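User: Just a sanity check before I run the rest of the batch. Below are the structure tokens for the first item. I only need the designed sequence back.
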């Protein structure tokens, strides 16, 4: 069974949805036969590379609300994340362009570490204030996962895997993905959003 997951490093519901799927797989009889493939999706592809704006301020401006309302919404997501064992504290989080982070996930795929790379990026972003567009911070995460520092810096200095990221995004557009997380099981069964664990388990059983 192949599960493709479109997500963004800076998407809290993707962070939560991935965890719900992982919990569903724990009790799934055929979990050893499941292949999970991360796919890139940028929530804000127009964000300036290497520019980091405080998340609360950026979201308040985007949705025409107040910083206090954004903070309250983040607390609600935090409660859900903590309930399933995830670290979550966005008080230091910043909004930025995530294209390079997605390129590193594709680099990690060459070593079979793409899932670990994505998980480390999300955990860093949502729990530790990772600046997802900062080269040195991305290098630090990648080397912790097990990638070679010189190779990571080489990729970030050029445009390797840019085509792979765009291919993911093009496929998302072609199948009508307008929001993430989006889970496609065996190319035919779709689950959209951070659905409950039970929903993912039902989908696995049905497929």
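Assistant: Here's the designed sequence for the first item:
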């Amino acid at each position: 069974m192949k599960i493709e997951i479109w997500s963004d490093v800076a998407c809290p519901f993707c962070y939560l949805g991935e965890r719900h799927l992982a919990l569903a797989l724990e009790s799934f009889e055929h979990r050893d036969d499941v292949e999970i493939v991360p796919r890139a999706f940028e929530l804000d592809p127009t964000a300036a590379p290497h520019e980091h704006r405080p998340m609360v301020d950026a979201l308040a401006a985007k949705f025409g609300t107040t910083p206090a309302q954004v903070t309250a919404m983040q607390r609600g997501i935090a409660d859900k994340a903590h309930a399933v064992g995830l670290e979550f504290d966005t008080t230091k989080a910043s909004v930025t362009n995530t294209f390079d982070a997605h390129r590193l996930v594709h680099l990690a795929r060459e070593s079979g570490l793409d899932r670990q790379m994505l998980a480390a990026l999300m955990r860093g972003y949502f729990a530790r204030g990772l600046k997802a567009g900062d080269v040195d911070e991305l290098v630090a995460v990648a080397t912790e996962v097990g990638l070679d520092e010189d190779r990571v810096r080489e990729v970030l200095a050029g445009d390797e895997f840019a085509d792979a990221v765009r291919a993911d995004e093009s496929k998302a557009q072609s199948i009508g993905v307008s929001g993430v997380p989006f889970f496609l099981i065996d190319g035919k069964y779709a689950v959209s959003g951070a659905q409950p664990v039970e929903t993912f388990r039902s989908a696995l059983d049905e497929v």
